[in-house]
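Q: C-alpha cells for this one, please.
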Amino acid sequence: MTDTRSGDSAPVAQVPPGHSSRQGPGPAGAPPGTGTGTDTGIRPPARRTGAAGLDPVDLEQAAVFEATYSGRAAVPVAIVIAAYNEEESVGAVVAAAPKALCGLGTEVIVVVDGSTDATAAAARQAGALVSDVPVNRGQGAALRLGYHLARARGAAFIITTDADGQYASGDLERVLAPLVADEADFVSGSRRLGSTTSRDRARNTGVVVFAALISVLIRHRVTDPSCGLRAMKAGVSASVVLDQPQYQASELLIGVAMAGYRLKEVPIAMQARHAGTTKKGGNFLYGARFCSVVLGTWAREFRSTKTKRS
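A: Here is the predicted structure, written as C-alpha cells:
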C-alpha cells in the first residue's frame, strides 16, 4: 500500500478490528488521507526536499535500513528513539520496552545520531532495529528519520521516548491508549500532570512559562510542551513540517495543533537519567533556543494557515 502524501511505500501493519487508525479531521479542505488511516483529511507532506520530505542523508540511511530489515514482519506500533552517545543507557531502555501495548505488537527503532561510542551496538544487542547515521545532526533530525522508517515499515502508531531512561516503560501504554481508542490523533505525556524528580528550578519554571505561551498561541491548553514521551497516528508525522534539527518537540506540537488534529495530554512520571548528561546545553541557551523555535514555528504555521484561507 502506498502513502501518496509522503512517498512511503510499505506493507501496512494490520490494526485489529475495533482499533481505528483514522487520522482525525485535519484542516478544512485537506485532501483525503490514505496511509495508515482509512478516510479523512491529512495535510500534504512536509515542505522539504526529496522523497517524503527527507534530506539526502536520510534517504541514504533509509535505503540501508530497508535492506537490513526487509525480512522483518510489520507490526502496528513503532517505538522510535533518537540516541546520541547513550551506550550506558539505551540497551536498558530498549530491553524494557513491552512487546505489546494495548494488545498491539511493538518494535523499537533506534536512530543513532552520529554517536562516537557503542550506542548502536548496545541498541542492536538489546533487540532494536537500528539506523546508524554517521553524522551528528540533532535529535530533531534523527526523529524525523525515525518517523519515516516507522511509516515505511507500515506502523499505524508511533511512540517516541528518550534513550536516557527518563521515561518509564510503563507509561508507553498510557500515551498510546487514546490513539487506539480514537480519542486523539496526537498524545503527549505531561510531567506536570504526573510527576518529575527534577529539582532544577529554572527548567521547571521554563516548562510552566512555555506551556502558557504555547497554550495562548495554539488556543489549546498545554501543560508540558517539551516532553519526549509522546505518541501519534503514523500519518500525522508525515503531514507536518519538521525542519528543526534539535528542538523538535515544540515544532511538532505546534504544527500538529495548528493543522487541526486532536491533541491530548496524559500524566506520566519523569525520572532521573540512567547515565550521562543532557545534550541540550545550559538553561539560558536552552531556553533561548526553545523560545526561538516556538515563535518561529507559530509564525510559519500562522502564515501557512492564512495563505490557505485567502
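A few notes: The chain has one domain: 51-309. Confidence is low (pLDDT under 50) at residues 1-7, 17-47.
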